[in-house]
Design a protein that fits this description.
By secondary structure, the protein is mostly beta strands. It is about 5% helix and about 40% strand. The protein has 7 helices and 77 strands. It has a 20-stranded parallel sheet that branches. Helix 1 crosses helix 2. The longest helix has 17 residues. The protein is globular, with a radius of gyration of 34 Å.
């Protein structure tokens, strides 16, 4: 944009006048004064004022100018700027006829920043749409309304926005069983669909295939004789590769859309471009005459891009609402040949085999030739070849594609220059009700992972404090946040929810571009078309932390709360809260390596998935101190797992987990309300016992640093014959960040049992920011009569009791088993030291056993030293389980873990068990009456057995999060 010389002179005068109004001075075109920075007084900030209907070049509060005039003045001022420049946008709607484009000429200079910001208390809207008015009932229809769209509209949009909501293009769902697919199109098998042959404007119809991880769009050319002829190259591109139309990885949903004949449901619309008529069927209670109906015309609103040698820089955009765009790419003959997370095949491959429809519907060698040429979905806001750019406090809504693209490939940038984004911040913003994903950072083509120019490297990108929800509504394969090949991405304190696919995605390339390549893809043939790199990609040192990811994977599958591809050395996933009980939490797919997963709370169906096929180079993930509700974090190739804690929804969160949960998402101080799934007060319950008496202590911690919890209540209710009495008053409130305690003294009855238990019901209430919260859980109180005639040991905390010849053991142990990927030796034992030797017969009756798990185990044990779990040899146990009969387990290799077994099914407690030692061999038997004995397997060898061994009773609940108990009697060593 060139400014005539006379306008430059006028602009310089206006700038000088504006600074003077603020109490400063300016000299356009003059050199900076020689006064040192320390001696020079602080320069005032230059402010230019714009409004939707501003005019002229004054740009003053009383005489605002337009966006174009302000940009011209900024360009004139920046070369000599000695101050920050701020363009202040008044509230209202700025209807753009072309995107705002910023390059190096618009950038801050001399250490200063140019900011385009909302005026205090105002909400400026940058809109790419035209409002449609003049609505009336469509003749012949009781439900459909129509209106003429403005003349001169050159774009046939794929979106319509009504009262701030993304409307649905007219469509009809088709059962896949009613269709069959051919190399050039689709055959209709169901005669009830014959009406499709008579649809008008057939070339405007398209098909959508919502598959496993791809959401494919393919335009129709014509419909005749029950056959849909499809546009090329879209059909070819949608029918070779993986998860394709004719061979999806799951049977998904098929739609025909964009025909007037399909307009039959509230919220649907259709645009007849021939007559300029827009049709809409309102939702219940909606009147189009009183609605804001926006027809988008622009595909992007803001483009920030320079060159690699002269980048755009030092720009801020704040407090702006970006809205009303479309994306027409999928409407062309290219369609949307989706491959994954917004990447799509583009153009006709000269290497596609003639029979690819049948020979390449689950990949083939020539398909691999296309991977490095896939395109990316463009953003409504685009940033590339730029540094020190900040987007903060904005709203991105009603956008027809990806909302914000940072450093994407050139094909996704209208400037024609891709990548090259550094020191970019996207923060404290809202993304909602968009057709595509929220934020994508990074490219996928060759220069993205191994840049030919260092200036292409995407690095130091911050995505922080954003709320991203209900995006990817039409391109359902896209993520809330995706970063591909990025160095030092920081994705922190975002809340991501209500998505059809994954919440946050990281990486790209399936390990293909990592050093040494991928053996899997070598077999597929990709290295016939690209080199095997020996140097790492640019993906490294990324941090994903303090994010709140929930209610994801609502449509697609083969994704997760967090999904990663390829290696990312030095990267960390920590302090995140994932709440999606029907979805997977972490998915480290092909080539994923070198992540550290630390102190996350995973309330998901499956904590982790790793695609660790032998030739996919996946693994080397370090999991440390994570909390899980369901399942376990599973050890895979070269992984390290320590400190995993199993949680239960019936119990309060441990303090550390509660802190992670509350701190996840946007900062507490910025939240507009409360969230029952992130309670602000942590409740920790502990119980201690002394003989027949116990105490319960509740520690209440206010996790919020600025607000008090008030109206605190706390009660403990004991069952019959037990009492629970508070030892002091309940605090009425808890100060910010403070802790309060409540203690009850619990007394139980004398029953004559080795161990007595009671569930004491605790309940807590408090008020926070005007919302009432409740919490509480049963606390199991255990009282025991001490064991006096034998020794006791627990490799996990255990309770032991004895009354005469009756014994009991209680604990919450994971298991006693060390094969099949397990490495567990968690038990409690009551035993006689060094009591078993050659010729000994050890017998016990297992009287009772809690069915904590089908594999809960109670029985007898021999071991050189029961106080040395995971180490001591000569280890054998004969146990009964609730659902899996009697099992003889032994340590076959002397490694200190039980790793072999023999079993007899359909046996439960009460049952008698017996081990007989003969030399270094042991035989096992069980009896239901103590008289008739049945062998369990044959004699087994005790590797490393000592001459004298500990002999005793053993119990493990087989669940670290749930305690159980077993009762024993008639224990003897003969």
């Amino acid at each position: 944009m060139t400014i005539p010389h006379r306008h430059l002179r006028r602009a310089a005068g206006v700038i000088a006048a504006t600074i003077a109004l603020l109490g400063g001075s300016a000299s356009a075109g003059a050199s900076a004064a020689s006064t040192s920075n320390a001696a020079r007084p602080a320069a005032p900030q230059l402010k230019l004022y714009v409004s939707p209907h501003g005019a002229g070049t004054r740009c003053l509060p009383a005489r605002p100018c337009g966006l174009t005039q302000a940009q011209q003045l900024v360009r004139a001022a920046t070369p000599h700027a000695r101050t920050d420049i701020q363009v202040v946008l008044a509230g209202g709607t700025y209807r753009l006829d072309k995107p705002l484009r910023f390059d190096a000429r618009d950038s801050g200079r001399n250490g200063h920043t140019v900011s385009w910001v909302a005026a205090p208390g105002s909400s400026p809207i940058l809109s790419g749409g035209s409002r449609v008015q003049g609505w009336h009932k469509s003749p012949g229809s009781a439900t459909v309304w129509e209106a003429k769209v403005p003349r001169g509209l050159s774009v046939d949009p794929r979106q319509l926005y009504v009262d701030g909501n993304l409307a649905t293009r007219a469509r009809t769902q088709i059962s896949p069983s009613d269709l069959s697919y051919t190399a050039d199109g689709v055959d209709i098998k169901n005669s009830a669909l014959g009406y499709l042959n008579n649809i008008g404007q057939q070339s405007r119809v398209e098909m959508e295939f919502v598959n496993s991880f791809t959401d494919r769009l393919s335009p129709v050319v014509s419909i005749a004789d029950n056959h849909l002829t499809m546009a090329q190259p879209a059909w070819n591109n949608n029918t070779w590769g993986y998860d394709v139309v004719q061979s999806p990885f799951r049977t998904g949903t098929v739609y025909l859309q964009n025909a007037r004949e399909f307009l039959d449901a509230p919220g649907e619309w259709y645009l007849d471009t021939a007559t300029r008529t827009l049709y809409y069927q309102p939702k219940s209670g909606q009147d189009p005459r009183n609605s804001d109906v926006e027809l988008p015309q622009l595909e992007s609103l803001l483009q920030v891009s320079g060159t690699y040698t002269d980048p755009a820089h030092d720009l801020t955009f704040s407090g702006i609402r970006f809205t009303n765009t479309t994306w027409t790419g999928p409407s062309t003959a290219q369609g949307y040949a989706d491959q994954q997370t917004g990447a799509f095949m583009y153009g006709a491959s000269p290497l596609r085999p003639a029979d690819a429809f049948s020979s390449c519907n689950y990949g083939c060698q020539t398909f691999e030739s296309t991977r490095n040429e896939w395109h990316q979905t463009p953003g409504a806001v685009q940033i590339s070849a730029a540094n020190h750019i900040t987007l903060t406090g904005n709203t991105y809504t009603n956008l027809g594609s990806l909302a914000v693209g940072v450093g994407e490939d050139a094909n996704a940038n209208a400037s024609g220059v891709g990548l090259g984004a550094s020191d970019i911040t996207v923060s404290d913003s809202t993304f909602a009700d968009n057709a595509g994903g929220g934020i994508t950072v990074g490219g996928i083509q060759t220069d993205a992972h191994h840049p030919s120019d260092p200036a292409m490297t995407n690095k130091d990108i911050t995505v922080s404090g954003n709320v991203i929800h209900d995006v990817a509504q039409q391109y359902q394969d896209q993520d809330g946040i995706l970063f591909t090949y990025v160095t030092r991405a920081r994705v922190t304190h975002n809340e991501v929810y209500n998505l059809p696919y994954s919440g946050i995605g990281a990486g790209w390339g399936w390990g293909i571009q990592d050093p040494g390549g991928s053996p899997d893809y070598a077999e597929r043939g990709i290295y016939n078309y690209q080199p095997v790199y020996q140097t790492p990609t640019t993906a490294k040192d990324d941090v994903v932390s303090h994010n709140y990811i929930h209610d994801i994977m609502r449509t697609m599958n083969d994704g997760a709360g967090f999904y990663n591809l390829s290696a990312s050395p030095g990267s960390v996933f920590q302090h995140n809260y994932l709440r999606a009980p029907s979805s997977s939490g972490l998915y480290f797919d092909e080539g994923s390596r070198y992540w550290t997963v630390d102190e996350n709370v995973l309330d998901v169906s499956t904590p982790n998935i790793e695609n660790t096929a032998a030739n996919r180079n996946t693994g080397n993930i370090t999991y440390t101190d994570n909390w899980v509700f369901n399942g376990q974090i599973v050890l895979k190739h070269l992984d390290t797992i320590t400190g995993t804690v199993k949680l239960s929804h019936s119990q309060p969160l441990p303090a550390g987990a509660a802190r992670v949960v509350y701190d996840s998402g946007i900062a507490a101080a910025l939240r507009t309300g409360t969230d029952s799934d992130r309670p602000p007060v942590a409740v920790a319950l502990t119980a201690a016992r002394t003989g027949a008496q116990a105490t319960i202590t509740a520690t209440l911690t206010n996790l919020d640093a600025s607000r008090r919890a008030t109206g605190v209540t706390a009660t403990a209710t004991a069952p019959a014959d037990w009492t629970a009495k508070p030892t002091g008053p309940v605090p009425g409130s808890i100060a910010p960040g403070a802790t309060a305690t409540v203690t009850w003294k619990v007394t139980g009855p004398s029953t004559g049992s080795p161990i007595d238990t009671a569930a004491i019901a605790t309940a807590f209430g408090y008020t926070f920011r005007g919302s009432a919260f409740t919490a509480g859980a049963p606390v199991t109180i255990v009282t025991a009569t001490p064991v006096t005639t034998m020794s006791t040991f627990g490799s996990v905390p255990s309770v032991f009791g004895q009354v005469g010849d009756s014994f009991a053991i209680r604990n919450a142990g994971a298991d006693i088993w060390g094969a099949g990927g397990q490495s567990d030796d968690e038990y409690g034992a009551i035993y006689s030291p060094k009591a078993a030797k050659d010729g000994s017969v050890v017998t016990v009756r297992v009287d009772t056993e809690d069915a904590v798990n089908g594999w809960t185990k109670a029985g007898i044990v021999l071991r050189n030293d029961l106080t040395q779990p995971r180490q001591s040899q000569g280890y054998v146990a004969l146990v009964v389980t609730p659902d899996n009969g009697v099992n003889l387990d032994w340590d076959s290799d002397g490694g200190g873990l039980l790793d072999q077994y023999a079993s007899v099914g359909s046996v439960k407690a009460p049952v008698w068990l017996r081990l007989t030692r003969t030399g270094d061999k042991v035989s096992a038997a069980y009896s239901t009456d103590g008289t008739t004995w049945n062998a369990v397997g044959g004699p087994v060898t005790l590797t490393g057995a000592a001459a004298q061994q500990d002999a005793g009773m053993i119990f493990t609940s087989h669940d670290q999060a749930a305690a159980g108990q077993a009762g024993f009697s008639h224990f003897t060593v003969n």
